[in-house]
Amino acid sequence: MNAALTLIAQARRILVVTHIEPDGDAIGSLLGLGWALMSLGKDATLACADGVPAPFRFLPGSENVVTRPPSPHGGAGMDPLTRGLTYPGQAGGRYDLIIGLDASDPSRYGDAYHPERYPGIPLLVIDHHVTNEGFGTVNLIDPQAAATAEMLVALISQLGVALDARIATCLLAGLLADTLGFRTANTRPETLGVAMRLMEAGANLTELTHQLFETKSLASLRVLGRALAEMQLDSRILWTEISQATLRECGATSGDASGIVNVLSSVRDAEVAVVFRERPDGSVDVGMRSAPGVNLAPIALRLGGGGHPQAAGCLLPGPLPAARERVLEELRRSLESPAEEA
Ligand code: AMP
Ligand code: MN
Ligand code: MN
């Protein structure tokens, strides 16, 4: 923590990046830390390679997020997603510090951060994945934390920044997203203590819950319908898959299919729920959830991904059936001999 505070104190121009296919913790943490750095007078550039998905665009500051931050070698300044807008930060690609959020390995930053673009610039990794081995110059990693946003509340207060309504709103969104509204096993008394501080600072729990869990696109319900119609129970593994063709037919984006694995995991007879999502390039995004007692983190690591004991994922080469068989085989083996995971 002290090394992290020193790095931030000494930096003026900071690039903050979060992971691809961002969830609420990825975006909430990015924006919450962004507001805190700006209130310290830092020049902060906020980047997510996939941009801010529609469900999180209500969060304050989301319009400032860029997909391709400028690098010292130039070639940037225009954002392909916002077309024509110049980047907010004034750094022109020359950063003193890069902060990476909510990702257990650097490939998860996608095109928002390639180390070779920033030689000699320190990387501060802030994350809560148990599978994070610490690839930064300084690593702040707490697998006990329910969300990266939870860790940031402590960091921000140690930086001497008072929580305001904007910071608190973004961070409570992150906390809610990763705990599904304080319902998952990573919710500890400390988590609720942090949430209380965020509410006291002006975050509206009811409004955030409504935005994050009760506001959906029509396309997402169409995809859910298709995914549920095609799901299969294989011993204690409940799985379904969503192809590019299905997404097209539903008029949906990959983000519209992101919460489906949580629906599958509510089935009593399923110890593990898996959703296979085909990406435009043919690779397959695998999202997994497990009942307490099944530790997915080592399984996801063996598949080249990462995550938490009860929520993990990986990215595999296609085609869909090949990726599916590889994951199901790995899961069946692990369920048969759980002792190996101890
Ligand atoms: P998801 O099912 O996409 O919500 O992901 C569940 C958890 O697994 C999250 O904590 C993700 O950060 C992690 N995860 C998902 N995909 C990957 C991946 N390709 N590599 C590493 N971690 C992943
Ligand atoms: Mn995340
Ligand atoms: Mn997270």
Task: Describe the protein.
- By secondary structure, the protein is α/β, with parallel strands linked by helices.
- The protein has 11 helices and 11 strands.
- It has helices spanning 2-10, 24-39, 148-158, 165-179, 189-200, 205-213, 218-229, 244-250, 260-264, 296-302, 320-336; strands at 13-17, 43-47, 97-101, 123-127, 138-141, 232-234, 237-242, 272-278, 284-290, 306-307, 311-316.
- It has a 6-stranded mixed β-sheet, sandwiched between helices.
- Helix 3 (148-158) runs antiparallel to helix 4 and helix 4 (165-179) packs across helix 6.
- The two termini are 29 Å apart.
List the keywords.
342 residues, six-stranded mixed beta sheet, alpha/beta, single chain, binds adenosine monophosphate
What is the N-to-C succession of helices and strands? HEHEEEEHHHHHEEHHEEHEEH
* Poorly predicted runs of 5 or more residues: 75-89
Report the sheet with the most strands, covering strand number, pairing sense and barrel closure: 6 strands, mixed
Mean pLDDT, to the nearest integer, reads 93
What percentage of amino acids are in beta strands? 15-25%
State the helical fraction.
Answer: 25-40%
**Spatial order of the strands forming the largest sheet:** 6-7-8-9-11-10
- Our Rg estimate from Cα atoms comes to 20 Å
Number of strands: 11
List bound small molecules: adenosine monophosphate, manganese (II) ion
Straight-line N-to-C gap: 29 Å
Question: How many helical stretches?
Answer: 11
Shape category:
globular
Counting helices, strands and paired strands, the structural category is alpha/beta
